[in-house]
Amino acid sequence: MGKLRKRRKGYSDEELDEEEDDFEDDEVEEEDEEEIEEDDEDEDYDDESERRAYRHRRRVRNQIIVYLVIFFVVVAIAGGGFAIGRKIFSLVQQKRQEAEMAKAEEEAAEEEPVEEEMVIDTPEPAEEEPVEEEDLLGGLAESYYSEMPIETKVAGLFMVTPESITGVSTATKAGDGTQEALNQYAVGGLIYFGQNIVDQEQITTMLSSTASKSSYPIFLAVDEEGGDVSRVANSKVEVEKVEDMAAVGAGGDASKAAEAGTTIGSYLKEIGFNVDFAPVADVAGEGSALGNRSFGSDPQMVGEMVASAVGGIEGTGVSACLKHFPGLGSTTEDTHDGRVEITKSIEELRTSDFVPFSAGIEAGVDFVMVSHATAPALDEDNVPSSLSKKVITDVLRGELGFEGVVITDALDMTAITEYYTPEEAAVMALEAGADMLLMPEDFEKAYNAVLAAVQDGTISEERINESLNRIYRVKCKDKLDN
């Protein structure tokens, strides 16, 4: 580049050669000067190739300058970003430290007991949880028999005449003999007939005295159905007489049955009786041996009457008893005189004879009396119903759902005594599921047989307790209201 410039100004070759070395030494310096004096140098170049070379160098130089500028800008930005980053990091660290300190203070405050202002509230009366009446009744019932000796428990399953324990021919008062008898045999109940009733004062005194001489609550029972079977009304005691149930049910008005039950229950209660073996729940059939003791022949109507009568009697505080399960209405013979068979099918019994019993059970009756009639449709072994587990446990309790006291019909009837000893009948009835044994032919023999059966394990004490629980639930009902 230096050589070309000197040729245009007239230098010879020799002069050029002499100055070549000096020119090369100054070349770099001249290039720097060329960069400063761009406009002057452009005018010195006429050759196009030289101008292109010059422009190229200038572009390279400019690019280098641009790159350097960019580099320094990036460095500056990076330096600023680093400073900002450090600042942000410092702030984050500061906030974290503050949060940790605050958390530590809160935990320390929680550990320290905080004195709060004492607020005294007047407590509201705690609501007592309702106790089921059944639970109370069951507990009360158990309290009577749980500590009894087994001899007393067994005696409590019997309901007998006063004569059978005192040994007198006709009992009309309760004296020392009654006291001694009840001390020896604490029977569950006594049943009275017309021969025991002289007048109102006499029977009232007798019942009151008997109850006071018993160490445990005792059933004092009578047959008072209305009509012909009315031990009190047909005696010399002056009470309002109630006509027979056939007449009461003739019009189909259940309120009359309720009224009859209330009337009977009221005078029995006043005299001192607490159990009435009524109403008759049998559905009368043609030629029925029951005669006018049944409300009628229509099962539904009889059921309504029975339920109303139960409500009337038990509304006075006297326990009612449905009789004679599974239904004697279709029979033409009497179990007092011998064996009686119910010939109806199970379907007929369910749609007819069972209907009034179900209605009475639904009404809350305390007792059901089981007859001595056989019912092959219920027990193919032809066992009297009073001794049949299939009748008592499977049907009466299982199918009809009765949970009250099951009592046999009188065990001194020919339908029993002709085929079973007093011992056999008593044990069989309890094994079948009966709770109370009514009037065995020989009380002492029956009692000793049951006691022996419990002692040798034939009948468990738990089974005896089940019956006593049902018995004492009825005996204790009125005590919950007092």
What's a concise summary of this model?
With 482 residues, the chain is an alpha/beta fold. 53% of the residues lie in helices and 7% in strands.
If you had to describe this structure to a student in words, what would you say it looks like?
By secondary structure, the protein is α/β, with parallel strands linked by helices. The protein has 2 domains: 86 residues, no CATH class; 347 residues, Glycoside hydrolase, family 3, N-terminal domain (TIM Barrel). The protein contains 19 helices and 10 strands. Strands 9-8-7-6-3-2-1-10 form an 8-stranded parallel beta sheet. Strands 4-5 form a two-stranded antiparallel sheet. Strand 8, helix 15 and strand 9 form a beta-alpha-beta unit. Helix 13 packs parallel to helix 14. It is elongated, with a radius of gyration of 58 Å. The protein starts with a helix and ends in a 7-residue tail after the last helix.
